[in-house]
Amino acid sequence: MNSENLIRRYVITGSRRLSNYWWASVVFLGAIGFLFTGLSSYFGQNLLPFLQVQNITFFPQGLVMSFYGILGLLLSIYLWLTIIWNVGGGFNEFNKKDGTIRIFRWGFPGKVRCIDISYSLKEVEAIKVDFKQGVNPQRTLYLRIKGKREIPLSQIGQPLTVEEVEKQAAELAKFLQVSVEGL
């Protein structure tokens, strides 16, 4: 067997997805608009050529718009930082060569910036599939470890179809030579 058949690595996208770039940009542009409108009403002149603020008094409308602009800027900074830091991104690695499973995720900066968990392949009991239907359906794969908790393997975001989740669970269970639960 070559080493490609002995190691499987699934990349987890994290916060660097198109929707996050979109919302961080929209919030930033909206916040700038609100802030410039509030500041224009304070100074009594149009800071941007397409803004007409003669009818907006600073107190209370301009002040409130400035407040919303500052809050929007703070929110957009937070969103951009989560994208830059790639919070939630990482990989799931299943290595038959070394007999290990490694779950790696990036987090927020601090003492524990990254989460890096390793288990022996011998500790794996099963692959569990969990389906939750409703307004916000969730289809999640879990790695069940002997005597320990279930570790989620699926990435957050667009829910996969039932067929895709079943296919992933079957492939992984076959590779690890364990059973699939929850189907």
UniProtKB/TrEMBL annotation:
Residue stretches spanning the membrane: 21-43, 63-87
Origin superkingdom: Eukaryota
Alphabetically ordered keywords of this record: Chloroplast, Membrane, Photosynthesis, Plastid, Thylakoid, Transmembrane, Transmembrane helix
UniProt keyword annotation of Thylakoid present: yes
Protein location: Plastid thylakoid membrane; Plastid, Chloroplast thylakoid membrane
One CC-aspect GO term: chloroplast thylakoid membrane
InterPro entries named among the record's database cross-references: PSI_Ycf4_assembly
Keyword Chloroplast applies: yes
Record-stated family: Belongs to the Ycf4 family.
Name of the protein in question: Photosystem I assembly protein Ycf4
Organism: Draparnaldia mutabilis
